[in-house]
Amino acid sequence: MKKWLLLLLLAAAAWGFYEGSGTGEDIHPAGRPAAAAPASGGIGEIFRTFAAGLTGLDVEDLAPASPAPAEEAPAGETAAPAANGSPLVPQSPAAAFSGLRDLMDFPDSLERRIDRSRFVPSEDIPDTLKKAVVAAEDRRFYEHGAIDVMSVARAAFANYMAGTTVEGGSTLAQQTVKNLFLSNERTMTRKVRELFLAIQLEKYYTKDQILEIYLNTIYFGHGAYGVGEACRTYFGREPRDLTLPQCALIAGLPQAPSAYDPIDHPDEAKQRTAIVLMLMAREGYISPEEAAAAAMDSLFD
C-alpha cells in the first residue's frame, strides 16, 4: 500500500510539472499569474483535487500556469520553485545531497536536529494531552503508517467539492519531519521529500516516540517551542499539572498558533478549546458531558 501511494504521489508531481510551462513554474505558492489556464477536462480536475488532498497544497497551486519566460538555472544546477512564488532559484547539488543523506542516515540526522535535554519525557506528558493532540491533529494516528489513506481520500473529496483546499491529510509523522527537516515552501517536491522522511520516521521510531518528538518540537505560539515551554508560557505550570481544558487548548494551538494564542486572542482560544473537547468526545476519550463542562471552565484557574 505504501509503495502504491508513493507512486501516486510521484505521478501527481510529474503531472503537475508536465502540465505547466515545462520548467517547474506551474507551481506558484504566491503571486500566481492572473491568466492561469484551467485544468483540461473533469479527469484532470479530479486528479488535481486528489493530489491536493494527498499533499496539502492548494488546488490552484497544482493548476497549470500560463506559459511565461523562465529564468534559466546555471549549468549543472536544477531549478527549484521559490517558497514565495518568485522566479525560480537554483537548487545546489549540496542541498540535494543533504536531503539524500537525511534519508540514508535518518536516525542520526533527526537526533542532530533535536535537543533531548530540553524534552519533557513522554511519561511526564499527561495521557489527556496526548489524546487531545491525536483527536485534534491525527485521529487515526495509531492505526496508519506514514500517511493516512482515509484522511487523504476525505480531504480530496472535501477539496473537490469546495474547489480549493479546505482540508489536508497530513499525519503527525509528516508534520514532525516537516518541522524538523523542511521549509514551509508549498511545492510538490517538498511534499515528496516529506513523505519519504515520514516513512523513515515510522520505520525507526514507535508511535509513542513520534508523539513525544512532535510534542517537544512543534511551535505552540508566543515564542514557545515544545510542550514544556508552552505550558509554562501560557499557564505557568508543567504539562503534568494541566487541567482538561488546558490540555485541549495546548493540543489545539499547532493548527494556528498566533490565531489561537490565549494571551492575545482569548476568545478565539476558548472557541478552539471547545472544538478540541468536542473532537475528544467524538473519539470516546471523554464523555460529551465532560466536554461540555470543561468548555465552560476557566483556562486560567
What percent of residues adopt helix (DSSP H or I)? Answer: 40-55%
Order of helical and strand elements: HHEEHHHHHHHHHHH
Gyration radius from CA atoms, angstroms: 20 Å
The oligomerization state is single chain
Q: What value does the average pLDDT take?
A: 74
Strands, total number: 2
Major sheet: order of its strands? 1-2
Largest sheet: 2 strands, antiparallel
Characterise the protein shown here:
The protein has helices spanning 2-18, 41-55, 93-104, 106-112, 127-137, 149-162, 172-181, 188-204, 207-217, 227-235, 244-252, 266-282, 288-296, and strands spanning 78-80, 89-91. By secondary structure, the protein is mainly alpha-helical. Strands 1-2 form a two-stranded antiparallel sheet. The longest helix is centred in the first third of the chain and has 17 residues, at 2-18.
Strand-helix topology:
Blueprint: H1 2-18, H2 41-55, E1 78-80, E2 89-91, H3 93-104, H4 106-112, H5 127-137, H6 149-162, H7 172-181, H8 188-204, H9 207-217, H10 227-235, H11 244-252, H12 266-282, H13 288-296
Antiparallel strand pairs: 1-2
Features:
301 residues, mainly alpha, two-stranded antiparallel sheet, 13 helices, 2% strand, globular
Structure in a nutshell:
The protein is mainly alpha-helical and 301 residues long. 52% of the residues lie in helices and 2% in strands.
